[in-house]
Amino acid sequence: MKPAFSVIFLTTLIGAGQGLLFAMVTAQTYLRLQEAQPLPGDTFYALGALGALILLSLGLLASTFHLSHPTRGWRAIARWRTSWLSREVIMLPLFMGFVALYGVMHYFDFNQPHLTLGGLVNIELTLLVGWIASIVGLLLFICTGMVYASVKFLPEWRCGLTVVNYTLLGSASGYTAGAVLAVQKAGRVSDYILAWAIAITLTGMVTRIIQLRRNKRLRPAVTHKSAMGVHHGKIRQVSMGFMGGSYNTKEYFHGKSPSFVCSVKWAFLFLSFPIPIALLIAGRHLDILDLMFAAFIVQIFGLMLERWHFLADANHVQNIYYQTVG
């Protein structure tokens, strides 16, 4: 398939925003369970929510460039009963609303305990809102992943690993951003968030490699023989049927050489996983914040390459015919 850069920016940026909110809620939950440790200032959570909103808003803005008529984009919700895309369109603004509420409540210190678990742990209303926001964020990841995993004629996408990788890779970049913020604003919880960022990044690397190996073993379900209904031993196509380009030749194939696609694969594997981990560890050990910030930037760029490869790796069945040039 031909990767659309609007989709690449959308999925990468909103994934990072979702992961950053997860990191804030994880930190607050951990510190609430460790009541002996003081909670970091509410500006930590408010800034995290603001950062998540900025990433989500940038992703939403990028999505409009994929629409012929952006003003009609709201109509996408009409098919929510059967369309994962419609469900994604509903879940994204809903998630953004909960993120905004979470940040505003922390900013105005609306943080009194409202619930007790087992008579031991007091739960703030902000934490309850954070948990709800996290559930909505997880549902958004599922909707985004299922947009691709539900496409029956693209076997490279149609598997559970698509949803798993969307969730893990988006969360990884968000937790990396959360670790950078925690080092600045919440020192005691920074190592905890850093450990989460490294663990999720490593897990995402494993699941993404598994999907790459799976896709490499796939074989086309349709061949020239089956398309023509003949059983000749050797069929050779010499022309794609067009002297010039068409919608079929432009939109269903990325137009790059196999070596280029392979180079993108290796680039994203290094930039998304081992390099950010090394930068995070080095930055924390040497107490150099710029290295940790660089880890986030490198990882975001690597994940954009990953998303390009994910889209380009899907081989539409019509390419058996249209991508042969005599």
TrEMBL record:
Record-annotated membrane-spanning stretches: 43-68, 89-108, 128-151, 163-183, 189-210, 260-282, 288-305
Biological process annotations from GO: anaerobic electron transport chain
GO MF annotations in UniProt: dimethyl sulfoxide reductase activity
Alphabetized UniProt keyword annotations: Membrane, Transmembrane, Transmembrane helix
One Pfam family from the record: DmsC
Cellular component terms (Gene Ontology): dimethyl sulfoxide reductase complex; plasma membrane
InterPro entries: DmsC
Recorded coiled-coil stretches: none
PANTHER family: ANAEROBIC DIMETHYL SULFOXIDE REDUCTASE CHAIN YNFH
Identification of the protein by name: Putative Anaerobic dimethyl sulfoxide reductase chain C
Species the sequence originates in: Magnetofaba australis IT-1
